[in-house]
Amino acid sequence: MAQKIGALIPVRLSSERLPGKALMQIAERPVLYYLLDRVKACRYIKDAADIVVCTTEDAEDDRLAEAVNAYGASVFRGDKDDIIKRFHHAIAQFGFDAVVQVDGDDPLTATEYMDLTMERLLGDPELGIVWSEGLPLGVNCKSFTRTALERVYQQYQQGQNDTGFIYFFTKTGLVKTATVSPVGPEHVFDKARLTLDYQQDFDVFSAVFQGLDDDGRAAGLADVVAFLKAHPEIVRFNANLDEAYWQRTRDKARLSYVDAEGAVKAISV
To answer: What is the pLDDT along the chain (269 residues), one digit of tens a residue?
Structure first.
């Protein structure tokens, strides 16, 4: 029996640093649509309706739900701060056996690595999650199984995990993991910051999407990296933000889980 594959994208409009960022416009399109384009291009996603934007039940996210529905993707609305719970309920509702998971803050997530992580995951029934590493910040992605999510859901300590939720999969030993490294040097550029947290990040995305052919809709990761290397002035827009980004992650990711012996353990970030 063929497995049902989908995609999960956590997004909400009540961002502390850049409120409403998912619906900010680039070339008269919401920035979220650029991410949906890239997920839709994944060869394991057969229909836009299998892309599920997982948002909250807050009234503020009504506008987000309307925009996602207008694109043709699906919406799941759940817990505001507990993304593991939101994912668990969403994957059950849509009946997915495995999912590509990308972050709503990362509109240039690499489609190539959605394909590669899912291919690796499906090729080894013992794996619970596969993620890419070594790509520019904001370009990496993950693929995980429903079984892995069930395992995490059973063992994690419920609470706020909107920052660092993926560590329940990657830092606990609850599921078997694997990684996918860059396939070539044309995908590597450590100086690039391609995640959307601040106005300076938005300025980078605006410049990239409007600088690439067809607003970057068909651009692969090599095209994006080549464009950025050719335009170092764009890279400098947000080059000073990484330290604050990682410090915030360390401060907010207060996560714990129950190990195989029943002991509660904190996750070291």
So the answer is: 679 999 999 999 998 789 999 999 999 999 999 999 999 999 999 999 999 999 999 999 999 999 999 999 999 999 999 999 999 999 999 999 999 999 999 999 999 999 999 999 999 999 999 999 999 999 999 999 999 999 999 999 999 999 999 999 999 999 999 999 999 999 999 999 999 999 999 999 999 999 999 988 889 999 999 999 999 999 999 999 988 888 888 888 899 999 989 999 999 88
Closest CA to 152 of 40, 6, 259: 259
Percent helix, strand and coil across the chain, each rounded to 5?
45, 15, 40
Residue 177 in any domain: the answer is yes
What's the total number of domains in the chain? 1
CA-angle at 90, arms to 143 and 11, nearest 5°: 75
The enclosing domain of 217 has a CATH number of 3.90.550.10
Tell me which H or E stretch contains 114.
helix 111-123
Within-domain flag for 192: yes
Is 124:143 a contact under the CB 8 Å cutoff?
no
Beta bridge partners of 129: 144, 177
Residue 266 lies in a domain: no
Range of the domain at 72: 5-259
Rounded CA separation 252/246 (Å): 10
The phi, psi pair for 101, rounded to 5°, reads -125, 120
Contact 266, 250 (CB under 8 A): no
Tokens 């990684």 found at? 179
Separation CA 44–CA 174 (nearest Å)? 26
Q: Is residue 264 part of a domain?
A: no
266 bridge partner residues: 256
Contact in structure between 195 and 108 (CB atoms under 8 Å): no
